[in-house]
Structures are given as C-alpha cells and as structure tokens.
Backbone:
C-alpha cells in the first residue's frame, strides 16, 4: 500500500516522515513525499533553496534506508491539501501521514487549516503524528 | 503494539473498528475498544441497553475473528478523550484509531470536539478514518 506523507522542514514534518517510513515497512508500499511550499505566495529565493535542500536530505535518507519512494515538490500555489489529494489519486495511496503541532503554551491545539483541510478532504485514513517529545526522566 | 480504538455505534465507529483490526494484524498487538457513553449526562436506560448490546456485538466479532482484545465501557461522565487517554496509558498503546465524520452537505467537516480533543491530547499517533463510502460505479 502506497503512503503519501505531507512533508515540511520542521520537527512535525520529520515525525511524519519517520512514521511514513515505519508504515511503509509494515505495509510494503512506497513512500510518496509531498512538499508544498508553505508561507503563502511570498516565498523568496532563499525559501526555495532551503526547500530544495530539505527535499534532497529527505531523498538521501530514504535512499540510504532502502525505502522505495518518490518525492514531489509543488510550488504551483495550490493549497497543500489539494497537492496531497492529487498525490493520493496519482499513486493510489491507501494512507496519508501528516505531522500536527502539539498544544501551545496555552494548551490550545494549533491544528492548522492545512491539517483540517486534509482531514476533511481525504477519503483514505489519515495518520496524525506529533513531534517527538523531549525524553521524560 | 497495542491499539486503542474509540468506538461508537455508528458507521464511523464501525470504520474505526475495521481499521483497528487491520492495524492489529499488521502490528501484532491487541485491540483495546473504548466506548464512552455519548450524549452528555442524560443517557437513559435505553441508551445503556443499546450501548451494552453494541459492545457485545463488538466483542463477538473480535472473538470470532480471533483478534486479541479487551473492551472498556466508560460511563463515568468524563470526556471521551480522557477515557481514551487513560486506556492508552493503561495498555501502553502505540496507536489510537478514531472515526471522523465526512463532510456535511455544505462541505464543512463535522470534526467534533471529541476528535479535536483526542488529536490535541494524544501523544501517540492518531489514525483518523471515515465511514466507508458508497461504492462508486
């Protein structure tokens, strides 16, 4: 079963990637890494450069770990949820993995509109993971 | 890895249970079915009877399918999210499965406060599934 993971260069994105790798080992499918440029319409050259470098690290890691995968970078101004849905359809994926933020200092979950859109629009199961917690004593 | 599933007697609850069974087969753990009485503080005797009957069906199904499991019915007036978290801790579960509603006729996701609470409060990954769609032609 192919697995689509929404990747962003953040602890949440890394947690989602870790989980997607684990799921691909369990389920025997390929990992489809989808990166949508975030930050609205005003990404500059530095953002693109950072994004490309992050995706190269992702590719190198998956390659080194022997995980069948492909990567998609979308910079076409669509909502990330639409990019993910497109990848689900293109790769006939059976699972989506996304990273979600932990609660803020005020205890309120910062469940972004992207996460809500993905939960709303995806017909396949969505696995929501948080960044790794600091190790408790 | 043990798997906690939030069960309600609805198409979403059945979808969550189906997925939890699948995950337990993949991951080799037991399924912990948690049912919190819904509908606030005013459940009547019929509600309890229906709930008990539904949980008996769940038990019978898991037993017939040879799935190692246990069931918990909570009627102690806590929020369902707290009951689920308690089960995660008690059974050292590594995954939570919940059913979420599809979008409403107006296209708005009815992501209930229970689902949001669970996403906020759970440290382990949460797998969100929707009811089975009608089969497309």
Residues:
């Amino acid at each position: 079963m192919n697995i689509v993971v929404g990747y962003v260069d953040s602890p949440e994105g890394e947690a989602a990637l870790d989980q997607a790798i684990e799921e691909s080992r369990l389920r025997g499918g390929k990992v489809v890494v989808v990166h949508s440029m975030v930050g609205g319409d005003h990404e500059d050259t530095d953002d693109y450069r950072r994004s490309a470098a992050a995706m190269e690290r992702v590719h190198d890691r998956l390659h080194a770990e022997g995980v069948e995968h492909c990567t998609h970078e979308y910079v076409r101004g669509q909502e990330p949820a639409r990019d993910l849905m497109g990848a689900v359809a293109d790769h006939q994926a059976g699972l989506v993995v996304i990273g979600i933020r932990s609660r803020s200092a005020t205890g309120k979950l910062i469940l972004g509109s992207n996460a809500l859109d993905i939960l709303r629009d995806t017909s396949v199961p969505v696995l929501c993971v948080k960044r790794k917690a600091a190790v408790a004593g």
Q: What stands out?
A: The helical segments of chain A are 11-27, 45-64, 80-90, 113-121.
